[in-house]
Amino acid sequence: MAGRIEDYALIGDMQTAALVCRDGTVDWLCLPRFDSHAVFAGLLGTEEHGFWRLGPEHGEDTGPPAASRRTYRGDSLILESEWDTPRGTVRVIDFMPPREGAPQLVRIVEGVSGRVPMRSALRMRFSYGRIVPWVHKVDGRTVAVAGPDSVWLDTDEETYGEHLTTYSDFTVAPGERVAFSITWEPSHKAPPALHEPEHALEATAEFWREWVEHCTYHGPYREAVVRSLITLKALTYAPTGGIVAAPTTSLPEDIGGSRNWDYRFTWLRDAAITLSSLLRTGYREEARAWREWLLRAVAGDPENLQIMYGIAGERELGEAELDWLPGYENSQPVRVGNGAAHQLQLDVYGEVTEALHLAHMTGLARSDYAAVLQLKLIRYLETHWDQPDEGIWEVRGPRRHFVHSKVMAWVAVDRTIKLIESGDVDGPLERWRDLRDGIHRDVCEKGYDPERNTFTQSYGSKELDASLLLIPQMGFLPPDDKRVVGTIEAIQRELSTEDGFVLRYPTSGEDAGVDGLEGDEGAFLACSFWLADDLAMIGRVDEARELFEKLLSLRNDLGLLAEEWDPRLQRQVGNFPQAFSHVPLIDTALRLTASGAYGG
């Protein structure tokens, strides 16, 4: 049985990632890429769908014990879990070396005290748990083969097969270290080279040590910011610069419900705001790589901009359901691919343009094609900004005139005007100034409810939407504008949970069918960080700090956040870990630090 979402740790190699539970079980790993089929899919099913457990030996009745404590080794993605047992203490070190060749997951067992009996239980199931591979020995190495895939297990310990699972039983004494590793290779190729686990551990630690040294943030929330930056780096697909929204699919927004989506793709919105956070904390190389990914993905067809692409820029992300998987805590369906890829979401033009603008303002080397792309996007918006769309939350109900979409269209035009005014490109300056003014006027007239003194989710609606919190952050209106303050206070009243966290929009009431889905969802963590930002901007800095630190307390023991927080169950929900939660955490920390609004 899978653990709670917050029970998992993330390890990865900037091309794929694994989730390791508190009891030492790897329940999720896709090989060789984030969006490949899972070899361990127990997270979305049962142990029959694949897992790798490594921990102290236990009885059948008691089940595997949770680690007594766990932590990342310093500022790295090397996980260390320790168990205190009646026979002594043992440590398991889990990591994935930054990839030079084949993807590899390494697990090193280290005796701390006493003599602790240990067991490794490895059950590989290819194609998201559907296919039992052919497991056999080749030159003393264990290999599992199915179709195009092979996974090689290497260890000096004896292994044996039982119940379609590969086991190893051994005992560790103080100072002893026992290594296991699995390596993926296309099945038609020669076996992967044997690697030295201890050398790989040293190289991985050095990689993260050097990477974190580039961080320019040294404020009071450094621990939370650095952990979030490491998480964002782990979600980056190194060969192309694409950034996945999360390494998982179908972790539910509503436990037992159907709001289950595949997030192993590059949303332009998520990636653009990630780029902004990286730039503001010193990571220019990642920003440059993402900009190059964007130019390749959109190249030649900016008029048909998609809201998301595959991590190498793929356009076809067809959605399907895996009916052999029961889903996380019976939350069905389990989906792969994402049918929202071809939705019209006008806000994306604003996020992409804002990211390109920030890259330009922070001195990232000029790209002529980036400027050309920006001009093409605005020419498209000229004739499409006034259309209804699916909006930032990619609703599957009818299209609407979402206020946030119009605001972000305004952002796209505004930032492009600034680019032209800087003299770096030529464009119809007066025409686009008129366009900017026209969009602004339209939003203020049609998207604002003067009786309640608040902007609304869409034109003609009475409902609210947490994306309206971005109005002052994007510079659409100043923070002290009465309409901005009224909107912030309305969202606090009408979209906040008892804990003070923020829902995206109502899932019951007049506009309950806006997203075309059944069920509810938890508080959306990004929106809650946006509220903290806005509170700071309007001078309520103590309240902003209090909310921010409350949000930090929702992180698991390793500093990781999923997409949402379920206030009823008091647990994390949604795909995990979620870039769209960690980015605003960084942004709010930067804002509060700049304002001096922090404790201590």
Automatic annotation (TrEMBL):
Residues of the signal peptide: none
Report the superkingdom from the record.
Bacteria
Q: Which UniProt keywords apply?
A: Hydrolase
Task: Specify the Trehalase-like N-terminal domain's residue ranges.
Answer: 2-131
Give every GH15-like domain span. Answer: 219-589
Gene3D superfamilies assigned to the protein according to its UniProt record, in alphabetical order: 1.50.10.10
Task: Tell me the GO molecular function terms.
Answer: hydrolase activity
The protein depicted here goes by the name: Glycoside hydrolase family 15 protein
- Source species: Streptomyces luteolus
Q: What is the lineage of its organism?
A: Bacteria, Bacillati, Actinomycetota, Actinomycetes, Kitasatosporales
